[in-house]
Design a protein that fits this description.
- The structure is a single chain.
- This protein is mainly α.
- The protein has one domain.
- Strands 1-2 form a two-stranded parallel sheet.
Length: 76
């Protein structure tokens, strides 16, 4: 997709997902996948809204590059 195509699809409500961690402060990608699936099943999809993950709720700035990649991969 080119820039114009991507921009055209970023419409509707934005859903910011907080990154879940387990009790040892490790990424909980299983919980993240469940959260994303719940949101998609609720109607957020291409052209009807979009998901931002990791979001700007604090964890975005504290995740390592590897963790950031892991979060984005789990949310796809």
């Amino acid at each position: 997709m080119n820039y114009s195509e991507i921009k055209a699809e970023i419409i509707g409500p934005a859903v910011l997902i907080m990154t879940p961690f387990d009790s040892a402060y490790k990424l909980n990608t299983d919980a993240l996948k469940k959260n994303v699936r719940l949101i998609v099943n609720g109607g957020i999809s291409r052209g009807k809204g979009f998901i931002i993950c990791p979001a700007g709720t604090g964890e975005y700035n504290t995740l390592s590059r590897e963790e950031h990649i892991e979060v984005v991969s789990a949310a796809q």
